[in-house]
Design brief:
heterodimer; A: mainly alpha; B: Rossmann fold; 8-stranded mixed β-sheet; 24 helices; 24 strands
Chain lengths: 299, 686
């Protein structure tokens, strides 16, 4: 081949090699967009406050969350105890602040377990199709029909209450939901010809699933993770409230509500209201963040 | 037209239109002073490659720009009304009465949840017709666009219609308001050649009927040549040349037009002797500063003045005008590639076939029905040979490719032989040597290249898996491959979405060649590309073949491209091989009536219009193929009952030329000297 003529043949070569990879650029663009979304900012602020209180709750709390004072039990909110005290005279503000820690450890871990498990199931079901998919999806449907509380109760009886049990229970309950989302995304991806191209060089199924397809479905997985996180917080609180989750004397919010909800009729609203507000604000914060992420990643 | 200087207002007048899109806070100019006019009843074509601003012009005329679009300067006047000064309410009235638009994808232009009749009737309802009156009128217009059963179609949903039918419905809706101006934005791009020809015929006939002015936007010069009286060539947001279609095509006066025309594989050109010309370089980026002529960077004639001074629109008489300093020399534009093929490695015919497919069959099961996608296809591909595979969509081209590759398992009894050795039906059961021997270049490089991987990883992985080489050896092989597909090695670290369409396709080609294949299947590898890029890719494929002696199975619906690249051609219809023979034998008469119809449907830029052979209706369903010859329901040369009762055998009519038709060869030769009779006029009664 004569080189001079051939060089001209390159009709569509750009003059310079781009420096920055497109993926990095897209990532930066997304973060920039996120930082401009008001819902995301609001959510991030709320979430940030709770993370801070989870990390440094011990330091900032005005009292020890475990220090009881039977002479000052069920005291109404005052300058000394802003949120009042509970039935053992413990400072509710301190308990709410420190209580963020448990939920902020358990909920994300549970969501992570559910996401990893669900992604693996969804990838397999979406990739193999046919009988494998049919069986997996019917099992998933069955799972989706079982209420969280039933699974929680069963696990509590079988394994005994602990944080690990809570993480496991919520993870298993979430996995089928995430699996469905992932499967839908995989079904669209596997029709693309890069999958056929991989088959045409003798790639094995696990490589195609995890190395080729998975990176392309990460956006919906991330969105699903943030959405599920909100539910996970709620689920942790629910399980704790029912006594299946985090156990007393941990200053967990669900536990606190459980211990005091019977006293509301006696006019003692503060031991219930403040932990409930804490749960609500954390869920709202996470949902606002997830809203922002969804908008940016699923345009 | 030059004689339309009467007092009637022009249908459309665009003057110095400058338009910008705001991207990341910066206004980027996409139109740089576009001016043209369309007279009453005239048809004006706007041609150019993707990204040159064609659709933006259309949207500006509809005043339907995206939110970040802004008209910086210029006037648009529609039937004498200044569009820029209209209130929003007036614009809405204008859209319901004066101008309408037909988009590229009819499937997405129709609402999938509303019955066709209701959608069309809505247009009349908007114009003030009452309930039943609107329905009656809707049925009337559907009849006008030659829908054979308008009453039945009214009750159907869009997805129950074929692409051609959908586009007819969209055209019916556009014409329902009897607009002054009809904008057609690539109306036939996704359609088969035979359907495209029908839609184009329909538009021409209706235009005469309604006296509508047309703005026809297309990247296909052949279509423009057929449809338009005048044409404007758009490049980087500027009309670089305009004039009467015939004059402009015969005597182009802008280097860009000259280059575009040279890129097209025309009849007679063949890879064995000619290389296609290309246009080097790239379209300037969105909003680039171009002080001089917009085409300077890619122009072989450019001198200092070109980058410094913007040329005026120079009148050349008869409405022909060019924006080039050296318009009188435009046709002397030096070729970007050498015209002759230098390599003397002629296709090594004579050697035994590399790949042989024997009685390939494939039946899909769907809702309890057997769909026979392929029926007894036998063909062979010789070493270093190109076998072209043509046919309408649904004819089984891609299915055949997938069967050969082993991506889909064929029915029992089908045999694929490589070097006379039978291959396993499924790719997973083939050994690595067989996998390596057969590779494919897919149609759409965006889908075929993993967007999360870098080019290095895409090609490198193929080398590792197919050849088992690693480390430095692999790297040097990778460099070689990149060189052989003329891919800049500096771009190896980049993911595909950062590359242009042509570069992506080069990566896909490099990947296919990674394991030194014997045969590469090319499934419409250039149909997603612009003509100038297409010609570069076709040159590349021809060069690689001459270099490496690889054989191609080349699938395309573009007969010009197939003819350029193929040594032999196979014509598929409804999963059956209708004709197979040497490229020239298939293209020259006598050929199968179906091939004849396909050929006549292709709009050419050469002016020699073959008489159009109309194919009635759509391709029948493979679930319920017609009795006898499968083509008999649409065949314009049908001779009688034998066609309906007996399936003709695939006979060798000349040496190496096979055909499946009841008509004896001599009769067919005689027949094809004149177009078939009993062709109805496009619009029988308006």
């Amino acid at each position: 081949m004569s080189t001079s003529a051939e060089n001209l043949d390159v009709a569509d070569q750009p003059a310079q090699a781009p420096v920055q990879s497109e993926e990095q650029k897209a990532q930066r663009e997304r973060l920039r967009l996120l930082a401009r979304t008001p819902t995301f900012i609001a959510g991030a602020v709320i979430l940030g406050l709770w993370v801070f209180s989870g990390l440094f709750g011990d330091v900032v709390a005005p009292h020890s969350p475990f220090q009881d004072d039977l002479l000052d039990k069920l005291a109404a909110p005052s300058a000394e105890h802003w949120f009042g005290t509970d039935r053992l005279g413990r400072d509710i503000l301190s308990r709410v602040l420190v209580g963020a820690r448990d939920i902020l450890i358990v909920a994300p871990l549970a969501t992570l377990v559910g996401t990893v498990l669900g992604t693996a199931i969804g990838l397999t079901a979406g990739y193999f199709r046919g009988t494998v998919e049919e069986v997996m999806m019917r099992v998933i449907d069955a799972f989706l029909a079982i209420p969280l509380v039933i699974v929680g109760l069963t696990a509590l009886v079988a394994l005994g209450p602990s944080r690990v049990t809570v993480i496991g229970v919520i993870g298993i309950v979430f996995a089928p939901i995430i699996a469905r989302t992932v499967r839908a995304a995989v079904l669209a991806e596997r029709e693309l010809e890069y999958v056929a191209a991989a088959t045409l060089r003798n790639e094995h199924a696990p490589y195609i699933m995890f190395a080729e397809i998975l990176p392309n479905v990460l956006a919906p997985v991330l969105v699903e993770f943030t959405v599920r996180l909100g539910y996970a917080i709620f689920a942790v609180a629910t399980l704790s409230f029912l006594g299946f989750g985090i156990q007393p004397p941990a200053p967990d919010w669900g536990v606190q509500i459980n211990e005091h909800y019977a006293l509301i009729s006696g006019g003692f609203w503060w031991p219930v209201l403040f932990p409930a507000l804490a749960i609500a604000s954390l869920v709202i914060g996470v949902n606002l963040v997830s809203d922002g992420v969804t908008r940016v990643y699923e345009r | 037209m030059s004689d339309s200087t009467n007092t009637a207002p022009l249908a459309l007048e665009i003057k110095d239109l400058e338009l910008a899109y705001r991207v990341r806070g910066i206004d980027r100019r996409v139109l740089r002073g576009v001016s043209f006019t369309i007279g009453k009843g005239e048809s004006f074509g706007l041609v150019g490659e993707s990204g040159c601003g064609k659709s933006t012009v259309a949207f500006a005329v509809m005043r339907y720009l995206p939110r970040n679009g802004k008209v910086l300067n210029g006037d648009i006047s529609l039937a004498g009304h200044d569009l820029m000064k209209m209130s929003d309410g007036d614009v809405r009235t204008m859209r319901t009465s004066t101008v309408s638009m037909v988009y590229q994808h009819p499937g997405s232009a129709l609402n999938p949840t509303i019955r066709v009749g209701d959608q069309v009737a809505e247009v009349y309802a908007m114009a003030g017709a009452q309930g039943d009156e609107a329905k009656t009128k809707a049925e009337g217009i559907l009849k006008k666009v030659q829908i054979s059963d308008p009453h039945g179609v009214m009750r159907r949903f869009p997805h129950q219609l074929s692409g051609g039918m959908q586009q007819r419905v969209v055209i019916a809706m556009a014409l329902a308001k009897d607009p002054t101006l009809l904008i057609l934005d690539e109306p036939t791009t996704g359609l088969d050649a035979t359907v495209e020809a029908e839609v184009l015929d329909l538009v021409s006939a209706l235009r005469e009927d309604f006296g509508t002015s047309v703005l026809f936007i297309s990247h296909n010069l052949g279509v423009i040549a057929k449809m338009c009286e005048r044409v404007g060539v758009l490049y980087a947001g500027r009309v670089v040349e305009q004039g009467p279609t015939e004059t402009l095509l015969a005597d182009p006066r802008h280097p860009y037009t000259v280059g575009l025309l040279r890129c097209i594989p025309k009849g007679g050109l063949h890879k064995s002797e000619h290389r296609l010309d290309t246009i080097p370089g790239f379209l300037p980026g969105l909003g680039a500063e171009l002080p001089g002529c917009v085409f300077t960077e890619r122009c072989g004639l450019a001198e200092d003045i070109c980058s410094a001074e913007e040329p005026d629109l120079i009148e050349l008489g008869k409405g022909h005008a060019s924006r080039c300093h050296f318009h009188e020399r435009a046709q002397e534009l030096p070729r970007a590639t050498s015209a002759k093929r230098q390599s003397d490695a002629a296709p090594s015919n004579g050697a035994g076939p590399v790949l042989e497919a024997k009685s390939m069959r494939k039946t899909f099961r769907q809702d309890g029905n057997d769909i026979r996608a392929l029926e007894d296809i036998s063909l062979e591909i010789g070493a270093g040979e190109t076998l072209g595979l043509v046919g309408e969509s649904g004819s089984g081209k891609t299915t055949l490719a997938r069967l050969l590759l082993g991506l889909t398992e064929p029915d029992q009894g089908s045999v694929v032989e490589l070097d006379s050795r039978a291959l396993a039906g499924r790719i997973t059961k083939r050994d690595s040597k067989d996998v390596r021997a057969l590779q494919i270049v897919f149609q759409n490089p965006d889908a075929a290249l993993n967007r999360r991987f870098t080019v290095r990883r895409i090609i490198g992985r193929a080398i590792t898996k197919l050849l088992g080489t690693r480390g430095e050896e692999r790297d040097s092989r990778l460099q070689d491959l990149a060189h052989s597909v003329r891919f800049d090695v500096r771009l190896l670290g980049v993911p595909p979405n950062q590359l242009s369409g042509g570069l992506k396709q080069r990566v896909a080609i490099a990947r296919a060649f990674a394991g030194d294949p014997r045969i590469v299947l090319c499934d419409e590898p250039t149909s997603a590309l612009d003509v100038s890029v297409q010609s570069a890719i076709l040159n590349l494929l021809a060069d690689l073949q001459a270099d490496k002696g690889v054989a191609y199975l080349f699938i395309s619906h573009d007969l010009g491209v197939v003819r350029y690249l193929s040594d032999r051609i196979a014509v598929l219809y409804l999963g059956r091989l209708m004709e197979l023979g040497d490229s020239e034998a298939v293209f020259n008469s006598p050929h199968h009536p179906y091939t004849e119809a396909l050929l006549s449907a292709v709009p050419t830029i050469e002016g020699e219009q073959r008489p159009r052979i109309r194919l009635e209706g759509d391709i029948p369903s493979a679930a319920d193929p017609p009795s006898g010859c499968v083509f008999q329901t649409r065949c314009p040369r049908k001779i009688g009952e034998i066609c309906e009762q007996e399936e003709p055998a695939l006979l060798e009519i000349e040496s190496g030329h096979f055909m499946r038709c009841h008509i004896p060869i001599e009769e067919l030769r005689e027949m094809q000297k004149s177009p078939p009779e009993a062709q109805e006029a496009p619009v029988a009664s308006a």
